[in-house]
Amino acid sequence: MDYRAPKGTKDVLPAESHKWQYIEREARAVTKAFGYKEIRTPVFEHTELFLRGVGDTTDIVQKEMYTFEDKKGRSITLKPEGTAGVARAFLESGLVSAPQPIKMYYLNCPVFRYEQPQSGRLREHHQFGIEAFGAKEPSVDAEIIALAMALFKRLGVTELALHINSIGCPECRPAYNQKLREYFEAQKAMLCPVCNDRLEKNPLRILDCKEDRCQAIAKGAPLMLNNLCPECETHFDGLKEFLGAAGLNYEIDPFIVRGLDYYTKTVFEIVSQYAGAQGTVCGGGRYDGLLEQLGGPKMCGIGFGMGMERLLMVMEGQGVSAGEGYSPDLFLIAVGENAKRRAFEICMELRESGVSVEVDHCARSVKAQMKFADKLSARHTAVIGDDELASGKLRIRDMKTGEHSECGLSSDEIANALLST
Fold first, then answer.
1. Degrees to nearest 5, angle at CA 325 with 319 and 327
2. Tell me, what's the pLDDT at 197?
3. Which of 38, 136, 222, 297 is most buried (CB neighbours < 10 A)?
4. Which residues contact 370 (CB under 8 A, 6 or more apart)?
5. Are 315 and 157 in contact (CB under 8 A)?
6. pLDDT digits (tens, 9 = 90+) for 172-215
């Protein structure tokens, strides 16, 4: 059998992993500055969590979930998004009674969706996400958007546009949904089969359809922004004020609805505009009714998801550095059996003090060891053989400048010599 990774999955190889680690470091630095703490939830949940939280009229629930029965016949789903699991953990662990808001993030969260793999989006992909519960003011909406933009800035990603919208709340959306039904009913024959099904269940979902014919019809539909209740209108005005206070430019896009049923009020997308990779690199919004839907109290929530694979694709497309790969501080080239043992001892001692050191494990010749050290981009090299063992001295070469320095064979002396070059 020809073993290959399943369609829509991708290995992260050793030569690429430093890019992920670089983004992780920057994300942790930004979340720390904004006061968000990490949460980790299981890869799979009970299916009912997503049916109630995400919504049974969404493409995710209808078409894309990886659902199976366990050995006791319970329906289990690999998580298709991160928010529902965090909301479940928030309720189950009693964080409802903790001082609010509770501000959390998750990093490299695996997400599974059975869809056609596309650029920057796989059937198993990974997300950096933010979730904040218990804050009703629009300032927190602006804060999480500012957090996302701060990460992009730290990473050097440019050519981004922030799009915002409000999709109302349970007070104003029913009347708006009725207007949508009336509008789309008149053009029902031209809608795709999926949108015909959405027409009665959730007409707002039609605005999110990717079919060209449905998108063309949707352009003439009534806008939620013209049908907001006073509370939602005030909240949206507040969001715009706080974004201005954060120095963030934005565009109002009345057709953003996002793909999940739990959203209320604020929704937003951060879109990459560089040539060749137009698309959303971060999206999110409010979900003020989600905890209540899951059996918890009425409490506000807001968050976003950022795809790691798509972010890396945008960085590579813009020529943005994603950090440096592994290069050891020192490669010890050993000549002879006695030297090999001493080189190994020195290597282990230096590693204990935090110095990255490599030695040969493949019985290479001296010339081959030197070539291998060069392939590893070792910062320094040193040859240790019978002469070095007899004299107790080692000559360390700086591979960038070609300069040499001499020191004793103790790990402390070698470490000091490396620091001084």
1. 140
2. 84
3. 136
4. 333, 381
5. yes
6. 999 999 999 999 998 888 989 888 888 888 888 888 888 889 98
Q: Specify the domain boundaries for CATH 3.40.50.800 within the chain.
A: 330-419
CA distance 25 to 40: 17
Nearest to 326 by CA among 12, 27, 19, 107: 19
- Of 390, 372, 348, 304, the residue nearest 105 (C-alpha): 304
Structure tokens at 227: 């049908």
Structure tokens given for 321: 């550095």
Alpha-carbon dihedral sign for residues 169, 144, 280, 14: negative
Q: Please, which residues have CB within 8 angstroms of residue 214's CB and are 6 or more apart in sequence?
A: 191, 192, 195, 206
Backbone φ and ψ of 130, nearest 5°: -120, 135
Could you tell me the CA-to-CA distances from 405 to 210, 308, 353, 394, 420 in Å, in that order? 64, 43, 20, 8, 9
The phi-psi region of residue 323 (left if phi > 0; otherwise alpha if psi is between -120 and 50; otherwise beta) is left
Distance separating alpha carbons of residues 411 and 348, to the nearest angstrom: 9
Q: What fold does the segment set 330-419 form as a domain?
A: Rossmann fold (3.40.50)
Whether 204 and 257 have beta carbons less than 8 Å apart is answered as: yes
Sequence letter at residue 156: G
Q: Mean pLDDT check: name the lowest of 116-130, 160-174, 229-243, 308-322.
A: 116-130
Residue 276 has pLDDT above 60, yes or no: no
In the block, tokens 């110095």 appear at 355
pLDDT tens profile 319-357: 999 888 899 999 999 999 999 999 999 999 999 999 999
Taking alpha carbons only, the member of 244, 246, 260 closest to residue 304 is 260
Paired sense of beta strands 357-359 and 330-334, if any: parallel
Superfamily of domain 17-172+228-317: Bira Bifunctional Protein; Domain 2 (3.30.930.10)
Average pLDDT, the chain: 92
- Residue whose C-alpha is closest to residue 160's, from 257, 251, 284: 251
Distances (CA, A) of 311 to 1, 24, 151, 158, 344: 34, 12, 11, 11, 40
CA distance 187 to 206: 12
Q: Pairing between strand 160-166 and 251-252?
A: parallel
Listed in order, the ranges of the chain carrying CATH 3.30.930.10 are: 17-172+228-317
pLDDT at 258: 75
